[in-house]
Predict the 3D structure of the following.
Amino acid sequence: MEKIPVMINGLPGNVARTMAAAAIVDKRFTIIPYSLTGADIPHDMTNIGSMDFTLVKPDTRDEKIKEILSLYPFFIAIDYTHPTAVNSNARFYVRNNIPFVMGTTGGDREKLKQTLDQGSILAVIAPNMAKQIVGFQAMMAYGARTFPGLFKGFSLKVKESHQQSKADTSGTARAMVGYFNDLGVDFKVDDIQQIRAPEIQEKEWNIPREHLSGHGWHTYTLTADDGSSLFEFTHNINGRDIYVSGTFDAVIFLKEKLLLKEDRKRVFTMIDVLNQA
Amino acid sequence: MEKIPVMINGLPGNVARTMAAAAIVDKRFTIIPYSLTGADIPHDMTNIGSMDFTLVKPDTRDEKIKEILSLYPFFIAIDYTHPTAVNSNARFYVRNNIPFVMGTTGGDREKLKQTLDQGSILAVIAPNMAKQIVGFQAMMAYGARTFPGLFKGFSLKVKESHQQSKADTSGTARAMVGYFNDLGVDFKVDDIQQIRAPEIQEKEWNIPREHLSGHGWHTYTLTADDGSSLFEFTHNINGRDIYVSGTFDAVIFLKEKLLLKEDRKRVFTMIDVLNQA
């Protein structure tokens, strides 16, 4: 198979570094030695393993991209930047006809779709690239749609643990609460228990020490008010390998969609990627 | 609402007793004071609370049913008898035009459907009447159908605990293993861990002592071979209240279907009951 050129944006950030390190040793990809970065990043270059990357800041990127596109006429961008950059990056990709996989969360998601509608490029946009979690969410969404009120009379507890640096509530837990609400359970997103203290994570949750700096553990517990039954769903992710694999699947999916010129849909989700697999 | 006359078959068995005790105090039902029973039951009568039931054995039931039908021209049968009685009871219901809810497991399920095809009555047939479990199974079936291979590269562990008197492997666990197989997981029904020892159930599983004689606890654990992720699904049922509620919903569903003469389908499952709700 021909190698797919990819540009990994968001260096020197953690997730982008993880993606780049994995892509460098993945024979399916050729890595472009440039990366979009934030205005506040003090460096002009970063390196991962033996590879040097030129960091491209917002004020020079419109000029720089001409040079990049002359060297690499086709590539797919992988975006793991910052919530504040989501919308301007999407506009940049559309303006320059660069298909992209948007793994960055946050930003204005409605505007993001509008930007795509105004252009002619394809994108995979997904707040969670872990295929098994996306699949499980799809199963929950199906349940909520097909059997509304199924868990009426049940109480819910939601506990999630993430690395201390994550300030906001888990987006996956928020989405799951929505499904549980449709299933008849009275529960507010504010009632999600967030664990961020490493000592509790290690001692009470038994999260491996090496993953305290990067993990996402979630448990949803439904208890019948009469004590007759309990349903519990858990998904625990250590590190970021699972997101790498899903992101690369999205790149390959996008490449295939680009070859099929007739497809009219322009924005895809991980559900589309899963359905294709 | 008009009360629905029901005949609860399987007395003096445990599950039938539970159903009868609940139906007696449920204002939606009138209880018929007869119950089909097995040839080996030494009694002719049994009582539940203040109500006496005549036990009707296989050798006299064809005669006895004429008397019962002359007293109660319409009723719905609830069958919690014995796996060995499933097929002959179904033939008995069809022969006498008695709509029924079959909660008894086992027997020849294929023949059971054929029996219904030969008659003109309606039935709800379901090996599990717990609505939330049935709904969860439907979500798993959807996942297996929509995302085959989603959990490829994962190892599965299945543990189930039931009262000591249950000799066979959990039917729900068997069905779930089928979905996990479709999701890409290599696992055999024989590898299901069955817990039947009350001391382990109480000490290691923390199953309440009062439910050691009647419970169904199941846990399915998927672990990624690289240790990066774990998915775990648990459903723990104490006692039999959850089956009572589902069975009665099935009776009400069946009554409504009988009123709609145009429906051509004759055999329904708990999924149909859930979809209606």
